[in-house]
Structures are given as C-alpha cells and as structure tokens.
Specification:
Elements (H helix, E strand, L loop, with lengths): L2 H22 L8 H22 L2 E10 L1 E8 L2 H5 L3 H13 L1 H6 E8 L3 E3 L12 H11 L5 E7 L17 E7 L8 E9 L2 E3 L3 E11 L4 E9 L2 E10 L5 E9 L4 E10 L11 E9 L3 E7 L4 H10 L5 E6 L12 E5 L6 H10 L2 E6 L5 H7 L3 E16 L19 E10 L3 E9 L2 E13 L2 E7 L4 H11 L3 H14 L8 E4 L3 E3 L4 E7 L12 E7 L5 E5 L1 E3 L2 E6 L5 E9 L5 E9 L12 H10 L10 H9 L7 E10 L4 H20 L4
Helix pairs in contact: 1-2, 2-14, 7-11, 10-11
Length: 675
Amino acid sequence: MTTSTILLILLSVIISGVVAFYQYLFKVDNQNKTNWLLAFLRFISVFSLLLLIINPVISRKTVETNKIPLAIVADNSRSISELKAVDVEKEWVEKLTSNTALKEKFDIQTYTFDAAFFAEKPLDFKGNQSNIDDVAINLKQLHKNTFYPVVLLTDGNQTIGNDYVYSFQESTTVFPVVLGDTTTTFDLKINQLNANKYAFLKNKFPVEVFLQYNGNRSVSTTFSIEKNGKKVTSQTVNFDKKNKVQSVQILLEADRVGLQKHKAVLSSSVKEKNSYNNTKNFAVEVLDQKKEIAIVSDISHPDIGAIKRAIESNAQRKVIIVKPNEINDLKKYDVLILYQPNASFRKVFEANKNLKINTFIVTGMATDYTLLNQMQSDLVFKLTNKKEDFTASFVSDFNLFAQSDIQFSQFPPLENPFGKITEKGSVNTLLKAKVNGIEVGNPILTFSEKGTSRNAYLLGENSWKWRMESFVLNQSYEKYDLFMDKIIQYLSTNSAKKSLLVEHESFYNSGETIDIFAQYFNKSYELEENANLTITLTNKATKAIKNYNFSKANNGYQAIFDGLTPGNYAFQVKETTSNASYNGTFEVLDFDVEKQFVNPDVAKLQQLANQNNGTLIFPNQMDALIQKLLQKNTYLPVEKTIIKNSPLIDSLWLLLIIVVSLTIEWFTRKYNGLV
C-alpha cells in the first residue's frame, strides 16, 4: 500500500469522526449511550464509504507446497508378453503406486505406452509397436522445465520412432527398469534391409542387408534371397563373440518387368528360440526403360554423330541412323529425330500421323520449311535464304522437366535461316535466340504437348559444337549428354501428367496401421482440395470387398486401415467426379514385429540411464529404487509464494458492513423517536 493511500485512509478516519461527532455529540445536552452508539454507527458507515472511494489494493501472501511429479511409465506392447514379464511389470506398477512413503513425497502419475502414449490406460499388453521416443516427447510437454524422476518399465526394444536415448529433457532423471530375461540366448536377426523401390530391366540393382547375432560362440550361417520360392543367391556369413554385426551387399538381376517380390532369409543349423526375425520381405518394381530412337536424315552432318553419342551415353538407349526413303516400320521406334527434313520426309510425316510417335525436329540451312509449315502445327516459319548465327539464352521458368543452365550462353551459335518464327500452338521454350546479344523473339529449343503427344524443336545446326564446348568448360561430356538424355526421356513417354497419384507400400506387417496417401490434380495440374476419393479393397483369397472414403490430409488425402488379416489385397482408388482411377496391390504379412525380440536391450537402457543421470534397475532391485527416490536431499517439494492483490471495492464484506450499520442506525433512531 502506497504512502498516499495511507494518508487518505487517515484523512478518512478524521472526516468520519468529525461527521459522527458533529451529528450526534456536538452541543448535545444529555450525552447518553444511545448517542454514542449512533455516533459509532455513523462513523463506521462514513468511513466505509470513504474506503470504497479510495479503493486501496490489499495484498495477501500465501505459501503453496507442490510435490515433485513421479512419472511411472509402463510398456504395454506385446513384446512384454513374449518375454514373459507381464506379472513382473504389473507387480512393479502396483507396489510403486501404493507405496505410502512415495505418495507422501511425490505426485505419482501413471502412464502406459505402445505405439502411442496414454494416461492411466489399463495394461493389456496388446500393443503392436513400441515407441519410447514418443514417451519422451509427451513427458516434455507435460512437465516443461521441471526436475523430476521417471521410472520406465520396459524391455527397451523400440520398433518405431527416433533413438530414445537422447530424447528425454535434461532435467529428467530416468530409471529404466529392465523387463525380461537378460540371459544371452542364441539368436540370428535381419536387422535392416535397404533396397530401391525401382530398378530397370536387364540391369542389376543393389540390396544392402545388416545382420545381427546374439550369442557367445562362433557360428556359421547362410544368408539367401528367394524369389517366387526359389533361391536366387546364397552366401555364408560367419559370426563370433567379437563380430556380432555383419553387412552384406548383393546385386540382383532385374530380369522381368513388373513388381518382383523377394524374401531375405538368415539361417543356421542351430535351433533358435525365436525365428520371427530371420526373414524380411521386400519388393522392387522393374521398369523397362530401354528405348530405341531413329535419327532420320537425308544428309551427312557432324550433328548426327554428336546427337547419337550423347543419347547412347545412357545404356538404356539405342540409336539407329536411317535415310527417310529407307525407313519402313516406324512402330518399333520410341522417338523419331528428324534431322533437317526436306521433301523426301513427306512419307515419314504422313506415316507418323496415325502412329503419333513423338518427334524431335532439328532444322538448319538444308531444311524445307514449306514442308514443315504443312506437316506440323506448333510453329510458323517465315524465313529467308540468308544465313544467321543465333546464340542461346536460357529460360529459367521452363517447367516441363528439371534442367539447369549448363552455360548455354557460352555455347557457339547455331546456324539457321534469318526470319521470323511464330508460335502457333501452345509451346514451352527452354532456349531463346539472340543475335549479337539481342533477343529476336525466336525460340532455339522449344517443346509442345497436346494430350499424350509430345514434340521438340531444335532450330539450328552445328549443335555438335555445343557438345565440344561443354567438354572444354567441364572437362567432361556429362552435362551436355544428360541435357540431351532429358529431352529423350521427355519424348520417350506418351503418358500425360497423371491426375491421380497414389503412394503405398508393397508389404505391411499384420497389426500394423496401413496408410494409403493420394493426391488428385485438376486439368491445370493444381492440387484439388475438394476431390471425392474412394477406395475399394478386395481380399484376393476370400474375395471380400470393402469400400472406404479418403479423408483430407496434409497436402492430399489418406485412407487408414487397421486390423487387416494377413493375405494379398487388391485395391482401386477412384475420384468419383472425373472417374480417374488407380489400381494397386499390397500384401499383409503374418509377421508380428513385437515377437522378434528374445532379450531386453540392456545396453540401450544402460545408455539411457547414463544419459539422464539415472540408474539401470533390474526386477529384484525395487527396494533400492524406492530408497533412491526417498533420499532426503533429492526431489524436494517446491514451495511457491503467491501474492494476490485485490481492490477493496471487490470485497462484499465492506458493502455488508455499510448496509448493516446504516440499517441499525435507522432502527435505533426510529425506536428513540429521532426520525
């Protein structure tokens, strides 16, 4: 309370006293008890009213004692049941939560976890996954900047999530309680398998596998990969006490187009307690990217050899050079490169009208532009017989495929007749023409796309010099050859941009949540936010059909399935408005990830304890843990001083005093005939 407020209160006392004295005691001949009572009541009323006007702020100080939280977190995954530690975990939870001394010192909070984190969910040991990292994340949110202990009852075997050793906040002391038999048991395990989702036909694709051994003696094992039940590769892998982890790299042949399913198997002559972790399935989709390209030309020119070498730098490309009057069957070619077409190309153009093979037209001084104006509808050529040199200017907003500027402006100029080239249809230009550093409005390299048909135009000859200059600039042909390969890659497919894209895995484990993600694009290839996507799921064995709707997700849509039985499934995703559809398959494996462990991960739990200033606890050390928690100088309760400031005008008691004093005064005056 400030000095000015105190002075005002003292002044109020004086004013109240003066008013009361003047009204009931001043110049009164007979001062009796009634006068003194009325004066007192008037003093109280006036003083209370003046206090309300002054409205001093009253501060109240209280001390609050808060207990430190004790988080008891129990593993609710199926691995606890597999390790026969259910009764031990339940006993620990019961004794810790009912201990009187702990309840007096701590605010005991119980949690459970499997794939997610739960508050006070009963233990049923049916969790399909273990995520200890999620425990750390949730405890951070619940107890920010708080020093408190955590008793973590678990086997330490995490199946999803980031490394939990470094996930807990620094102010948390973690006491991991090891659940399960720590006796070393012989076990072989495929710990991780890495393989690309896609491979190209006739190529070899790599598979990297990390194998793990649990045991103390030397053992010889066999690692093999099977395809359609047949062994395609096999090798011996040796383990011993010092070498418990081995990595294997294998090259497999992509010999057939389509989804190829494989199984990796690790085995030995020694019988194992747990064989769930000895196999791992994976799938690779084999694509046929082998393309045959025909360069059709009626003249000889170094451009032709340079283009051929650039394209064939990709082993998946085959280029033949043929004259226009010698080419018979256009169907066998994926792309036609028409080099400086003249009158003899008319039959080629006519034959391609129905076949609609994508073309790459290269012009120059020997080109018949009258024929070109008749045979294509993308560009209009109004050229003279005068030769001009055109240098290239890169267009940065080109978006048909990813292409960076490989210093095109430094490449030698191309020769082409001087004149005007007008864009007739919708084209997308990668390189524009410059003469003496000034853009003339003509394209040098441009592309057109109509439905599933794609064409490209390189307007100028002597591009062989570009390949040479690229080598001078980079000491390699790689950048120029990759540039040419991207053009061929773009032209070698007739697929327009897909409006419906669907992402899914080839294999899922039983009990695992299956998440299928989809995106739908409108005609402008913009993500459609109001699409109506459905999915029809069919069990191939039982022929049972289920229909679901997709729900909105971040940047797309998703359908989530739980509880699918093991087996093969086919599905169709459909957008009901446009009827765009996608068909796919996946397999649910009869594999329980929580059954792959034979021992608790003691080493990892010891790391967790060391990292978080705790102690690794074994099941027979409950009393020792309780004593650590009850030590006098640790985990002391926190006292908080709370100061509450409240204005006097908020007090109901003062209003009540005013009402009571005025009421008693009135009745007293009435009784004594003073009213």
